[in-house]
Amino acid sequence: IVVKLPNPLSSKVHGYQTRLVGFSSQPRSLVDKSLDTNNRTILTSMKNSITLPVVLAHGMGDSCFNYGMMNITEFISSTLNGTYATCVPTGDDRTSDTLNGFVLNMDANVDVFAEKIQNDPALRNGFNAVGFSQGNNVIRGYIARYNNPPVDAFLSIDGVNAGTAALPDCAPSNNMIMGRICKSLMSTLSTVAYRRFVQKHLFQANYWRDPTKINSRDYKKNSQLARWGNEGDYTDSSLNENFAKTNKFVWILAEEDSMIWPREGEQWGEPNPANPFDSVIAMNETRWYVDDLFGLRKADESGKFFFESHSGDHLQFSREELENWIKKYLP
């Protein structure tokens, strides 16, 4: 497979639509379309490949049926010498797949994702996973709640792993005007985000994590993110067991990310509980890690964690960077 793509690869998020620029302008040309009528799956030279299959999960506003994700899937397959690669949608067409990234909650997205994984014979012995933005929540949820067949290596690119508590380009700050506006918006959204009805119907509310509300009754009782992190009212030991089944985690951070606050959450940092608007604590200082709520510390101490970063804003990585990550961590 030869992929002819513009260089550099970058991605811009405009409102709620993710556009993977450099992968979105041309349809795939050298794919055996008979393998998948939805034109999502790449399958070449499987008999000669020793690399595990690769599953991709797209970000907010995107779809596995868009040219961008199709071409990224092909690019990863080509980079790994024809390894089987597939972008797994949570809808049956472009419209439903895109909308389900908004109005189908995280757990429901994970259930659909898991069903499609388990129905794919090529994935029955396990696979590697690559997530983009909130697609990492789907993969992480699959690992937490299923992981059968198991994810061997998880490459998280600019993932909303530790949640977010700010609208894009509106992170809380000490700025006299915008800082106050953004804090006010955070407070307003937090009054409704943890209501049961909202958690049931809105994907973005599921990973909304206001640092001033994490000890509140509604967050602990209703938040899906809280439940996945064993921060809620009940502890689920299967979350730790499933997390331990994955052998490699690669946490990639956008150094100037304006979509996710704090950006350090892409590598499991969080706002300092003592002073959330002034400082951020690293992964190994968080309660998730110190108390090993769902297996974070055990995985790190077992040498399973790797950390990378790229310059620029959310998903503004280069084609070369993506290629290097794939070759380095998914051999």
TrEMBL record:
GO molecular function, one term: palmitoyl-(protein) hydrolase activity
Superkingdom classification of source: Eukaryota
One Gene Ontology CC term in the entry: lysosome
Keywords: Disulfide bond, Glycoprotein, Hydrolase, Signal
EC number: 3.1.2.22
UniProt enzyme class: hydrolase
Name of protein: Palmitoyl-protein thioesterase 1
Source organism: Proboscia inermis
Highest classification ranks of the organism: Eukaryota, Sar, Stramenopiles, Ochrophyta, Bacillariophyta
